[in-house]
Amino acid sequence: MTARLAIVFRLGLGLSACRHPEAAKPLPPMTHEAYAYYLDGKLAAYRSDWAAAAESLELAAKAAPDQPMIAVELARVQAKAKREAAASDTLAAARKKWPGHAQIWLMSADLMSAGKRAEAIKAYRRAIELDPDDERGYLGLAKLESPEDSEAVLRQLVEKIPDSVEGHYRLAQRFAKRNDLATAIKELHAVIERDPDHIDARLDLARALRRTGHMAQAIEQTRSAFDRSGQALDIAEELFWLLCEADDRMAAIDLLTLLDDDRSDADALTAIARLARGLGRLTQARAIALRISAVEPEAGAIVHAELDAPGDPTGAVKRLLPIAPDSPRFAEARRLAGDILLSAGDPKGAAAAITPAREAAPQELDLALVAAYAHADGGDVAGGRTLLAGLPSGLGASLARARFEDHVHAPDAALAILEPLLVTHPESTTALNLAGYLLADRGQRLDDAERWLARARDLAPGDPAILDSWGWLRLKQGKPRDAVRALDRASRFAPNEPEIMVHLAAAWAADHAPRTAAEVLDHALALHPSPAVLARIERVRASLPPPTGTSGDKLAP
Fold first, then answer.
1. What angle (nearest 5°) sits at the alpha carbon of residue 216, between those of residues 214 and 217?
2. Given Cys at both, which of 50, 217, 338, 428 links 80, Cβ 3.0 to 4.6 Å?
3. Are 475 and 503 in contact (CB under 8 A)?
4. Are 202 and 225 in contact (CB under 8 A)?
5. DSSP secondary structure code for residue 528 in this structure
């Protein structure tokens, strides 16, 4: 090995040991044999061939017993190879041989953190003591300490290393979790100043800004995250709903137009088509569906069926049933067919449609819920409950059971499931929305309903279903004008949802605008509502006073 390579390698392996006076003794150069084994081990590690990497690094360690960083790397790959005992022995020997080497203590702490918390904490503290300028020791220690001590460690980190991006970010997460949004925003700005492409920090900053009422800044940060991520679809959807929350329908449409390009695959186009359909832009959604069909016919059939279902449920189902059982779209297609048939008042047909998919995946939650609905709508409520009771425990199964109880008009039973669920899963927007709506619908515990729905709006801004629940709550609180405002916005961002229209009509009626209420009901009727929603339309219409022949009564929300 040339003198130049020896110097480079000595620096690369021994730099940490040279940071403090007690470890300043230079390491001897490595032999060609040791270097060859080391490189072979590193190459095997890059291939994730951990067994081969461990074998080569063991040979390197024997050929160069005076190199502490080989011991560190050997322990790392031994752990990756599921040889924890060997890794522990390697590090124990290394700590004894090089007690002042920070990297050895750091690797020891990382290995111990899985099951030896107290020892890992001591090892992280020793690593920090030996090398206070390495953020990894602080970050590892912060994961293990109590919340209060962990925050102190992170504060110590950013004080010692002000440019620690991860230190500022983790502090921001802690402040946001305890609702100290002002401090969280400050820390998130510190992250972005140091790393403008930190996408998670920008999104967290946008969420904190929105929650503190700075909607324009929240949109700006989300848009920046969208651009910097290469227009990632999940961020695009977050931006879309944020624009809906800001009541900027045109900007939401512009975003969908931007996303609808030749770079989008079938899954991305499907998401865009569904968002366009939600906004009532059916012509655009159908054009996208045709493009999807050209590259993936089964995905296109599903999108077409969603678009056809309100006006032509039979035709929609005919698009779905030919999708073969070996297709990855089979379960989705049969679930959708079941939903469409249920909405059309055909529970027997729904059960028949989903049976083949359920036989292949009996524990699939969405299919099980459709099957339970089919039982209930066919007169067998107990059978539906029994079916769902057989699902494995978990958030999804509990939500399915609560939704079923709501479907069969058993709100007490639904709330009995939802309230404990909200204790263990306080950020489940589905649970928050359903629980809040059920209480609002019954006119009971409206303070709890408001708290839950406000949290749901906070977690899922712009969601028309949650805004619909919020408007219904405002109506039940005796605030019809506030209800009209919320429900009118929900209807503008979901103009093809007849149930929202029914709620809006009820709000207009309560606000002494029966003619406007009747017009909204006419619009709801034109959307081909399900039999259940049709019955609600007729109930609201029956509550309206007879027309008097006067001019329209609608006022701007």
1. 70
2. 50
3. yes
4. yes
5. -
Q: d(Cα 446, Cα 151) in Å, to the nearest integer?
A: 37
Measured distance CA(239)–CA(231) in Å, rounded = 11
Q: What angle do CA 346, 351, 352 make, to 5 degrees?
A: 100
> Could you tell me which residues come within 8 angstroms of residue 215 by beta carbon, excluding any fewer than 6 positions away?
209, 242, 245, 246
Longest CA pairwise span in the chain (Å): 102
Q: How many beta carbons lie within 10 A of that of residue 209, not counting itself?
A: 21
Q: Profile the chain (557 residues) by mean pLDDT over runs of 10 residues.
A: 34 38 61 88 92 92 91 93 93 93 93 90 94 94 91 95 96 94 96 97 96 95 96 94 93 92 85 93 94 94 95 95 95 96 94 95 93 96 95 93 96 97 95 97 95 94 95 96 95 93 96 94 92 92 79 56
Q: Which residues contact 548 (CB under 8 A, 6 or more apart)?
A: none
**Domains observed in the chain:** 393-453 (1.25.40), 462-557 (1.25.40.10)
Spell out the residues 6+ positions from residue 351 whose beta carbon is closer than 8 angstroms to its own. Answer: 338, 371, 374, 375, 378
Gap between the Cα atoms of 19 and 235, Å rounded: 42
CB 305 within 8 A of CB 318: no
Q: Could you give the angle at which helices 531-543 and 514-525 cross, rounded to 10 degrees?
A: 160
CA gap 231, 200 in Å, rounded: 14
**Would you say how long the chain is, in residues?**
557
Burial of 545 from C-beta contacts in 10 A (0-12 / 13-18 / 19+): exposed
> Residue 174: how many CB atoms within 10 A of its CB?
18
Q: Position 153: which residue type?
A: V
Cβ-in-10-Å burial (0-12, 13-18, 19+) of 96 comes to exposed
* Cα R_g (the chain), whole angstroms: 30
